[in-house]
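Lab meeting prep.
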Amino acid sequence: MKKPRIALVGALAVVALAMTGCSASASGTDSAGGNTLTYLEPQTWNTLYPPAGGFYPNGGVLNQVTDRLLYQDPETLELEPWIAAELPEVNAEATEYTFKLRDGVTYSDGTPLDAENVVKNLDLFGKGDTKRALSVSEAINNYDRGEVIDELTVKFFFTAPSPGFAQAVSTINSGLLSNKTLDRTSEEFGPGNADKIIGSGPFVIADEKVGSELKLTTRGDYDWAPKARDHQGAAQIDGIDIVVVSEASVRVGTVVSGQADIARQIPAPDEAQFLADGLTLVAASTNGVNNSLSLRFNHPLLNDIKVRQAIIAGVDREKIVDTLFTENYPLATGILAKTALGYTDTSKYYQYDPAKAAKLLDEAGWVAGSDGIREKDGQKLSITFNEALPQPRSKEVVTLIQEQLAKIGVGVELFAGDQAAQDEARLDEDKIQVYHSMVGRADYDVLKSQFYSTNRNALLNFDTKTKTVHDTELDSLLDQVASVPTTEERQKASAAAQQRLAEQAYVLPLFEEPQVFGLRSSVKGFHTESIGRPSFYDITLGK
């Protein structure tokens, strides 16, 4: 039986439904600290260097303290001017972009956000700095250099077409920082340094308790929001207290009781609590690569396509979604969400068929052992999945898959551990053979970000030991997505790459992953950006 969809915020709609039922008397103004918003995060941030800000706790901070050249409307996904005074002038090959900048924009330390500063930002983000351990932004492709034309005009040059650049400069990965901030090392962008990270955004980081809390205050002279926002000028709240609360039941209970205003990552079983009077649930689309499994095909246990196909056929995705989630988590019909740019339906490759799975394993020479797990040449067919801590209910998802694959003789183990342990093991196929993850970005390039050999490399298509690419055809298709100039060409390249991923049984998409927020109905004006990160600029707190 299907479960009720509470709310959907994304490319198609921005809806926040106030529910009826049992009431709680507290409101944001009298229970959560006057006119200061209390926001609960399940994990702590680990860097405020924008190109490395994709981790949602990082982006949730960067989205409050930095501005970008362009703004992407979360409903239409259209680009609009922000710090740029107008949309860029782009040549036919998409290798040159010229931006006119707004006059009078400053950072919170009083320094100007001018052409020289913008070039310094994008030169760092587009090239990185190995000496300071600062990575290249995965959102920026084929970057060559920036050039100051005059105080308020910049021009960017690329070595090949870079059609995703305009959207890239609308993301938190291109959040603009002061000159002094840009001189910091990777370590100096990390915990313990939050109040030294200077942006031009509507909020300023005032204080930090490492690993547990950030205090943001409102910048009184802020006056350069995108025209599409609900209001202009300074934010209407005094500030934000971002508090790390890892236990989901505590996050839920704190908001329900009126002791906090908003919490992120409300588990599906707790959504019903937000049906009560005075509470609201918002599920924001992430518009990118779906919550999915990447099968690392170069590993000896997975290099036979029949084994990969068997694993895919042996997983009942619909049962997983119906058992663990609500209709806020639609069953995936491809590696990209339906709302993602470039989406192609490849659902025919992901049909549940345990009989077919068993037949494929038989054909591949894997026979049942005494414990029920198949064997071949003295080796057990036992594979290890990571626990994707940022993803909802990852451990429960893997546990269900473990039960399902056991029926066809495939053993599944879970690589447990905190985020540091998961990060360390992520690129080691001997530790993790099936990688559970997702990526949000409202651009065609999101597919390249996830699977390209020198980006996130989720499939481990690039061998760091031999410096070789295993599937050059896939890499070539992904490269085309980010390096052909027209929308039509990008759509064609994206469709071909998705087809390759499906045909080769490299991925198993599970569901379209939202960011689910629970909030007090007294919180008005809550929005998310185009992939579900919170934006508190328009919020007001009332009874």
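Slide two material, second protein:
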Amino acid sequence: MSENKEPHVAKFVYDFTEGNKDLKDLLGGKGANLAEMTNLGLPVPPGFTITTEACKVYLESGEEPAALRDEVSAHLDALETRMGKKLGQADNPLLVSVRSGAKFSMPGMMDTVLNIGLSDKSVKGLADQAGDERFAWDSYRRLIQMFGKTVLGVDGELFEDALDKAKEVKKVTVDTDLEAADLKKLVTAFKKIVKKEAGRDFPQDPREQMDLAIEAVFNSWNTDRAKLYRRQERIPGDLGTAVNVCSMVFGNLGPDSGTGVAFTRDPASGHQGVYGDYLQNAQGEDVVAGIRNTVPLAELETIDKKSYDQLMQIMETLENHYKDLCDIEFTIERGQLWMLQTRVGKRTAGAAFRIATQLVDQGLIDEAEALQRVNGAQLAQLMFPKFDDEAKVEQVGRGIAASPGAAVGKAVFDSYTAVKWSRSGEKVILVRRETNPDDLDGMIAAEGILTSRGGKTSHAAVVARGMGKTCVCGAEELEVDTKRRRMTVPGGHVVEEGDLISIDGSSGKVYLGEVPVVPSPVVEYFEGRMHAGAQDADELVEAVHRIMAFADRKRRLRVRANADNAEDALRARRFGAQGIGLCRTEHMFLGDRRELVERLILAHTEEEREESLKALLPLQKKDFVELFSAMDGLPVTVRLLDPPLHEFLPDITELSVRVALAESRQEPHENELRLLQAVHRLHEQNPMLGLRGVRLGLVIPGLFTMQVRAIAEAAAERKNAKGDPRAEIMIPLVGTVQELEIVREEADQVIAEVEAATGTKLKLSIGTMIELPRAALTAGQIAEAAEFFSFGTNDLTQTVWGFSRDDVEASFFTAYLEKGIFGVSPFETIDKDGVGSLVAAAAQAGRATRPDLKLGVCGEHGGDPESVHFFHEVGLDYVSCSPFRIPVARLEAGRAATQSEGSDHR
């Protein structure tokens, strides 16, 4: 790549003393936080960071920036001068780690190489420097193993097999029992593996090692697992990763050394205390990989009190500085504590709500910031059911409660099977000794993850918490045999692949079979069955209550429900709905009313049609009386009949068989024959773009006027009973203002007749759904005849994209998501650039014509957290969603409002 195409940046490399925590875009999260800790005077090993800009140049051109090598050399020279030793020199060698560090945490998804600088010559110098030959050869074998897998692409299982063989020969079970002589032999075996598999010798030049490792970290940004993780977490793909080159400190120097991960609060519950894992005589990868089981961090006080006390003080400093839960990686080298990383830690949904309110009480953050520390996806997780404590269960194990939830599924022992079975509709639990980044696709597919090794800081735990996935780690009493696809539990019972198991991520318990579930306390709170503030109130419920109360005070968007009957309406009201944004009247025509609809469709004369409509009118009126009673004092938007009429008739194949059988038996079948003729008459190649919505009202005389009359009479009855009905009549699938004008004129006439007959003045507003591109593009004209717009984003997404939702999600959406064409399905989160731009333009044009035009949305996007923020930005008045998602929409509407305030203040 020519120099004039490189970004105009002052430099590509920053010393740890030069950055700060606000430079995450440039230095990545790890580099920015290493710099911040250095600025705070904390014990951070010296080093430097290669910026994300350098990575972007490399990924775009395939070559490192021309200036990068010289900048790295200058910073390496400065590091060598400061440390008083040279990279990889034969005596007293400097060793470095090369670690990835993107702006957003992607645990385990990208590459790291430790002990860069070791070679056949320098390993002896390291042994002399440390006075420990075993340590030097252990570090060397680790370098070859990590470098071979990460940089040269050698299958990591080959190294693991060789390590297992060495332990088998020695008749030991853990690698720390291997002696220097054993490790020398292992290094020789590892080098042979590299030579055979990579087609080259392991590089002995320390600078070549470092340069190749830097390039490998750049390349790891675009590995399949990294791309999959970014799609899952909705992280942009064009950010690139920084690379951190840090002088090595060694936790594998004996029992007075070690490595660990610490949290300033429990990431699973949010409770304050001493949380984390520690492993003596180990390097950092041993902890997060779950290869050796750790001890609780609290035991460090007994092992090394001086380091423990210093660590506790540093943790308090970092939490007060970042004003949040911090996740910390540290190493102790012969009694000297070193800080290797800190970041704002991932946490479970429950922990997020608890921590946010705790920090408010401590005066570290205000309520507005607390609201930004939680989100709707986390709230939705808290509303999932939990295992029934009263159920008869067979507990077979218990591990570490790493990520809460109640997960039931068939045991599978590899990611491929998890994905395959999940795609065929099976619910699965991924069971592994420990997970690694290559298991990510299986972890996403599974209902939950169970491992027999590792702790709260292992790969499985960290990734599961980030995804909101149920996880139990370190269930040591379970013997997992992935090759034979089975798990042996205490007592000798064997769980084969496909057997049902249940795992409780809140308690760490593992059960055989399916454990029944009960509603979560958060749902009970929203339904009014658990009261926040009561003496025995659940701590989590109290935290949710406080944050929801603030969100409700701050939000501008109102939240309504999609509900079609009084029962759903009452549930929605308990969940905090401020009205009904969509009542689908077609759902009222099913069941025992189908026969009346059939008679309407089969009517040959005006009298027959009038008779059918007359029979339907009182039933419809009863529906609306019940609905208006349930939502008294709140708006109820009633959508007139929308779907094609053939949906109310029998299936064409089934009906044809019935007619054929009746004819063959010479049985009476006149009615079935008429039905079949009607089905054929109404059959359409693409019914969702055919005779439905407003078109039905225009083609079938009396259909819409019957519904309008039922609405008006129900409203009048409620009003005369001292109620406060607030009905809104919505005309679906309008594409031109003329359609709306005709229906509106008929509706106004019917309403006037009802007012005259009942002596009751009604205030019924009439509006339309905007669900066709033409409606959005001519919204200014349509607003002349509409008092409100409700955006039907489900149909609008279908018609803008040319997608049939019932078909495309099953046929090619998976491929589109995997290839990165979609970051997320446009039916799940609104497509801001396409569908969203039509919504924004229609809202603006509609209000230009009618300034008091009420604007809402009633598609599924009304309950999607990201979409709610968009609807706030474009100025809608309300969103409407299913009852269960109302709390999520309320929370996100509050978050959107406080974010807007924050932007205004800035």
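Talking points for slide two:
Residues 606-630 form the longest helix (25 residues).
The CA atoms of residues 14 and 49 lie 5 Å apart.
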